[in-house]
């Protein structure tokens, strides 16, 4: 027991000295932050490496915030008051498919240079611009018929899927687009000048698909061809 007590008495001062040395090193590091204990001299470059990185990051962030935003990169907001929730509570509209097709074409022609509204235009923005209210703006099943009819006739083109965005088709604009009204109070005054191949939604098949050929073989409602890669057509003829 005497030997164990002696060992304890000798070990306690050693632990105390070690903790004292660690405390002194911590205090020295706080008092001399730029002193390199390995090299035994001051090294401001090594000590300020982190601050230089932070200062560069701050300058880059400040430059990014102060940089002017290009006008073509800004999203053009809808006019104040064109809110879907508010337009749903307004008196309902009863536009048919043909009326919507003419109004949609007028709106997209007006935004053909992508300077009037955010382009390509989203379906919801088109619904607001053509003046849908009530139950017709509550869901998209009414305007989707008109959009699909225009897409099938290559009047408009679906540019993006999610969210769906639309613009005038290249084949429709290559020979010139019909004139539209520039009057702000009556933007659809010349909508009667816009003509379409068909304005009736087909009973069968996709609305934006090609119409069924009148040539019916064996009672099947299919296009008559001819299909070059199918020799059966030539043998049947």
Verbal overview:
The protein has 237 residues and is mostly helical. The chain contains 10 helices and 5 strands. The strands form 2 sheets. The chain has a 3-stranded antiparallel sheet with strand order 3-5-4. Strands 1-2 form a two-stranded antiparallel sheet. A hairpin with a 4-residue loop joins strand 1 (35-36) and strand 2. Helix 5 (97-110) crosses helix 8. The longest helix has 30 residues, at 2-31.
Low-confidence stretches: 1-6, 45-49, 216-221
| DSSP strand tally | 5
Strand content: 5-15%
> What share of the residues lie within helices?
40-55%
Q: Give the N-terminus to C-terminus distance in angstroms.
A: 117 Å
* Coarse structural class: mainly alpha
Summarize this structure as a short list of keywords or feature phrases.
237 residues; mainly alpha; 3-stranded antiparallel β-sheet; two-stranded antiparallel sheet; 43% helix; disordered N terminus
Brief rundown of the structure:
The chain has 237 residues and is mostly helical. The chain has helices at residues 2-31, 44-47, 49-66, 84-88, 97-110, 123-129, 135-138, 141-152, 170-173, 232-236, and strands spanning 35-36, 41-42, 121-122, 156-160, 165-168.
């Amino acid at each position: 027991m005497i030997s164990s007590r002696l060992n304890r008495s000798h070990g306690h001062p050693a632990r105390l000295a070690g903790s004292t040395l660690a405390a002194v090193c911590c205090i020295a590091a706080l008092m001399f932050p730029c002193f390199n204990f390995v090299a035994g001299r001051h090294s401001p470059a090594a000590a300020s490496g982190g601050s230089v990185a932070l200062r560069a990051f701050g300058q880059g962030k400040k430059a990014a915030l102060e940089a002017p935003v290009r006008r073509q990169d800004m999203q053009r907001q809808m006019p104040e008051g064109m809110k879907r929730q508010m337009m749903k509570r307004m008196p309902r509209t009863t536009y048919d498919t043909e009326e919507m097709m003419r109004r949609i074409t007028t709106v997209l022609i007006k935004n053909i240079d992508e300077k009037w509204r955010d382009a390509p235009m989203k379906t919801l923005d088109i619904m607001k611009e053509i003046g849908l209210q009530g139950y017709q703006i509550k869901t998209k099943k009414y305007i989707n018929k008109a959009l699909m009819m225009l897409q099938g006739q290559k009047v408009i083109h679906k540019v993006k899927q999610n969210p769906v965005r639309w613009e005038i088709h290249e084949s429709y604009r290559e020979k010139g687009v019909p004139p539209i009204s520039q009057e702000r109070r009556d933007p659809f005054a010349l909508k009667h000048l816009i003509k379409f191949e068909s304005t009736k939604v087909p009973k069968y098949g996709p609305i934006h698909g090609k119409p069924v050929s009148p040539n019916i073989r064996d009672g099947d409602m299919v296009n008559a061809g001819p299909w070059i890669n199918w020799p059966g057509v030539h043998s049947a003829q």
